[in-house]
Amino acid sequence: MESQMKVLVTVKEVAVVQDGFEIAGTEIDDTYLSYDLNEWDNYAVEEAVQLAEAGDDVEVVAVTIGPERSEETIRAALAKGADRAVRIWDDAIADAELLDVETKAQLLGTVVEREEPDLVLSGVQANDDNFGATGVALAEEVGFQWAAVVNALDTGNVLEEGVASVRRELEGGVEELTDIDLPAVLTIQTGINEPRYASLRGIRQAQSKEISTWTIGDLGLTEDVAESSLNITAMYKPESESDAEYFDGDADKQAAQLADILRDKEVVAE
Amino acid sequence: MTVFVVADHRRGDLRDVSFELLTAGRELADAAGTDLHAAVISGDTDAFADKLNREGVDAIHVVDYGEEFNHDVYAQAATSLVENLGVDFLVVPNSVNGLDYAPAVASRVDWPYVSDAVDLGYVDGTLEITREMYGSKVETTVAIDDGPVVVSIRGAEWPPAEGDGDAVVSTFDADIDEDTVGSTVTGFEEADGGDVDISEAEFLVSIGRGIEEEENLELVEELVDVTDAILSSSRPVVDNGWLPENRQVGQSGKQVAPDVYLAIGISGAVQHVAGMKNSDTIIAINTDPNAPIFDIADYGIVGDLFDVVPELIEQFGGTPPDI
Ligand SMILES: Cc1cc2nc3c(=O)[nH]c(=O)nc-3n(C[C@H](O)[C@H](O)[C@H](O)COP(=O)(O)OP(=O)(O)OC[C@H]3O[C@@H](n4cnc5c(N)ncnc54)[C@H](O)[C@@H]3O)c2cc1C
């Protein structure tokens, strides 16, 4: 049966770097990495689930490019209310040093062409590589309309009019009001909603929701898709540009020195 | 070969990054031995072209179409410029509008795209782009062997271009296909002023994600109380709904320049720094000695805010709350 509307949410498992990490070659030594759902995608998932709750029959499909480990992240999206998930992975992807924007857009684009969603929600950027480009590149790849850095979406207009009325968050507290024809990709900004925590029931249900796994071949693509003309030739810790004066000692000593500065600058009265 | 930059403007004004693009573009053009061209799309193009005519710019192309930024128009115009004018490097701002069209142009002309460059080098025919990853904890060099590229640059990393130029200004007919414009900008709105204007404050105590939980805000509120400061914050604190929007400092929040800015549990992300780097004195309290906020701080405490802030409250005769 056709649902009223289908929303695809792209989610990414991002690497979080621990303090004191080490770099091996052009990568961070993976003993210093932990993994989490990308901050921006968490808001995108919530926005999709809220659309599903507001509509009569809205299906939410989460899609990720990631290794088996990332199923944990995908389950988190399912536990919050996504109906099912697609995970793309392949040895050729694992071997690639860097997944460039074009590769991601092509991989995700094939899924979009198969699923034919009305709306795709992705995050503005990912915490780890902060490229900030996948959503718009994906829209271009599949010929959808798009809007980047969306911090409000009129749910009613999406469901009833087939138009995404959005606010784009510009610099300096200015918002642009824009209408976009569907189908479209929106890149979602943090703060657009209040992401829920998964309920126990949600977590239980997520266990039995379907995650289909597709290789490059399953998508009807060839391994060249993972090739890139970009090479990472160096990775290093930026040299500190700090010429700050540091206050040493225990917290009470540090606080005393800081208090002196504040008095000295005459921003705090005695 | 040409280095091509596309200016950024909004509501009648060129944004600062437009002039920084000219500097970045000129440096790259010098290294690669090419010309520097600039484009202005939409708006008061004549006036903009005049302002952009600074030293080092060889030519300026104006596309007269509409008033304000529309990504469909920009994507079409930039693609057409690239395809017709022999462009090799397209350099655009990593602004919110840059995010809205640059990836589409790269895809249309089938060039690689690299965003948020903080440095550009050109060595033996290879473009080397420096960019940050993992919340500025590492820098990487991304190299592109002979081939054109679309690259976006971070704001405030290059100085603005100065001096009068003698660029040739010409109109470019981008032949915009209106049928493919699927987005309509219907207006602009400015964020509410709210109860307090943090940009007026002399002393800002600013709190970040390091505070961990809403209940813990009591601690900084007490500090604000005893020091007569004004409370501001980084974005996550506002995103979580713990403080209202008018307290947010940064790119999408307020620009502030108080006498003293005390950043507590704030890492110093570029979008935050954009809003407070002009403060007279910057003091940071952070557990991570490598946090980028220390790069711009005048004074630093490497320490836990839950230890330091209670002591600071006591320094000013207050009693730290039990949290
Ligand atoms: C388009 C766009 C616009 C944006 N606009 C803004 C904006 O206007 N303003 C803004 O602020 N951000 C903005 N951001 C978000 C920005 O990129 C960062 O995500 C954000 O600034 C991070 O806030 P933070 O420093 O509080 O959090 P984090 O980066 O998570 O840093 C928390 C810091 O607290 C420290 N810490 C943790 N525990 C303690 C402790 N107990 N004691 C002391 N220190 C501790 C950590 O070491 C860390 O450095 C924007 C992003 C985008 C993409």
Automatic annotation (TrEMBL), chain B:
Bilayer-spanning residue ranges: none
Keywords per UniProt: FAD, Flavoprotein
Gene3D superfamilies, sorted: HUPs, TPP-binding domain
Domain Electron transfer flavoprotein alpha/beta-subunit N-terminal residues, every copy: 3-185
Keyword RNA-binding: no
Pfam families associated with the record: ETF (PF01012), ETF_alpha (PF00766)
GO function terms (MF aspect): electron transfer activity; flavin adenine dinucleotide binding
SMART domains per the UniProt record, alphabetical: ETF
GO BP: fatty acid beta-oxidation using acyl-CoA dehydrogenase
Family the UniProt entry places it in: Belongs to the ETF alpha-subunit/FixB family.
PANTHER family found in the cross-reference section: ELECTRON TRANSFER FLAVOPROTEIN ALPHA, ELECTRON TRANSFER FLAVOPROTEIN SUBUNIT ALPHA, MITOCHONDRIAL
Name of the featured protein: Electron transfer flavoprotein subunit alpha
Source species: Natrinema gari JCM 14663
